Amino acid sequence: MSDLFVDRYPDQARVVRAAFTTAYIALGIGALFGALQALHRTDILRLVESTTYYTILTGHGVFLVISFTIFFLVGLYQWAVTDSLNRGPVDMRLTWTWYGLMSIGTLLAGIAILAGFLDDPPSVLGSELSADVLFTFYAPLQANPIFYIGLVLFVVGTWLAGADWFRTWWAWKKENPGERIPLPTFMVLTTMIMWYISSIGVAVAILAFILPWSLGLIDSLNPTLTRTLFWYFGHPVVYFWLLPAYMLWYIVLPKLSGGRLFSDPLARVVFILFVLLSTPVGIHHQYLDPGISEGFKYIVMTNTMFLLLPSLLTAFTVVASMEHGARQRGGEGTFNWLRALPWRDPAFTGMALAGLVFAFGGFTGIVNAGMNINYLVHNSLWVPGHIHTQVGTAVALTFMAGSYWLIPQLTGNRLVGRQLALVQVVLWFVGIVFMTNSMYRGGLIGIPRRTAEPQYSFDYEIAVGSIPELRAQLAIGGMLLFISALLFLTIILLTAFNNDSIPVVDGTIPPALSGPEDSPRILDDLRVWIAIALVLIVIAYAFPLANIVSRGGLFGPDIGP
Ligand code: HAS
Ligand code: CU
């Protein structure tokens, strides 16, 4: 029997392919919207009215950071659990159920958003079908109920996916008593624990307040409360996008570099730290919100600074693994080993460039997290700069690079156009450098985010360039990213149909240099970490939430008749 995943687990490979296909379709739509925005904002080409800009902006956000990232995640995690436990799910019907729920949810939310393009949208469930509420969708912006119903189905789908993987792991545990959890599965389980704990926030916000309000069942809500519940979920969700990329950096990148993961125990500690610290930090998105006192914001700032630790540990472990690989390949010297890395491999180069960009995005995250300096950058174009280096490159480029390695194993087909794939990942890197450089600099001089009409056409000379120069950079960068996304989708499509070929890819994962046996077993005792995580959340949120509700009421202030 061949070693290929598709030959060992044909049924599971089918689900992973389905999830990836949905992710790629979302990527295509999101990328198109991104290109339209870049040209619109910079006033280079305006294909839509400025009011429709917000439909496009919502679609860009939702299709990319909710559909693309999370469908890729479930595909990747399905692969990781199956491959590392060496067994399929307990019941494939559950697997297809979560995929189905997530797809129906996406379809409903997508239809609600796209209806914004219609001149005369139909009325559904008592209001006009539209959802121009941006990907952060908190009140007072209101969408048609269909949008929220879609989101709820989608999230329930992800919960069932997690249940599916936990069930598979429990079955494996019975068959393999006393064994350590294989690292990829450990990563899946810890990510899902973080997701269960944090997505409760958005579920409560939607089911208890926003959906009834949009259906007309209640006529007011407390916006600070729904915003706080949103951000309770809104920070951890960024790690829900990031952790599958981390999985590829820890599991696949060391191998592609020609070596082995430096330390399995450190990787486990990193994922545990994300379980503990991802949630009690959400208020760092609300430093400028009135209604939450400074003291609570200060606690959250401290937590956020601690949360840098797992990423700094990752920088160390992943680069150490790359260096080990380079030295196995004959690399020498303090920095010269970098030249021994397999730079002609698009999967490797894409992930390495994504990591490099992530370092810069991480530094801007530290700027965001500072309570005082946040006042300078909040709601400016700096924030989309941060978003595009983080989820738009660290995550998206890693997923594309990872696809070049995974798709041949999932289809049994050889990757089409390896050279072109290399061009594609480099093009993304160049595009993002142009675009985010412009966004960061524009943000620092006060250009706002989320507007179709950034009124900055006056002749404002700054030391390093002018407004027209910043605009040109943004537009050029945006176009390069769009071309790169199209190239990626073309390569994947051609590969999917490249049937009569032999895939030349080795899907085996070598063991870590320092394995799980070098770490205490308590790392695998997930209950301990869940308990500590919950305590930290109570400390960070109990008082602010009580405060917000006591002042503004559960359903908004009682302002009388
Ligand atoms: Fe953030 C806003 C703080 C990480 C996403 N963030 C956002 C928003 C998004 C987002 C979408 O404190 C906007 C939300 C909105 O619409 O309003 N963020 C942080 C901090 C981190 C951070 C402290 N963010 C992320 C990640 C995201 C993401 C990851 C998506 C995936 N962020 C904030 C704050 C705000 C914010 C405030 C609110 C701003 C405002 O005012 O609105 C940290 O997790 C970052 C830690 C990272 C590092 C980097 C370590 C370096 C590594 C590289 C290794 C190198 C390799 C390659 C592998 C310290 C790991 C080597 C290559 C060779 C060639 C050798
Ligand atoms: Cu955050």
Q: Can you walk me through this structure?
A:
This protein has helices at 5-8, 10-41, 53-85, 92-114, 145-175, 183-214, 223-234, 236-251, 253-256, 264-277, 294-306, 308-328, 346-369, 374-377, 382-411, 418-444, 467-496, 526-552; strands at residues 123-124, 127-128, 461-462, 465-466. It is an all-alpha fold and 561 residues long. The strands form two sheets. It has a two-stranded antiparallel sheet. A two-stranded antiparallel sheet has the order 3-4. A hairpin with a 2-residue loop joins strand 1 and strand 2. The radius of gyration is 23 Å and the shape is globular. The mean pLDDT is 94. Bound molecules: heme-as (HAS) and copper (II) ion. Heme-as is lined by residues 136, 238, 241-242, 249, 284-285, 304, 307-308, 311-312, 314-315, 318-319, 322, 352, 355-356, 358-359, 362, 365-366, 368-369, 374, 378, 383, 386-387, 390-391, 395.
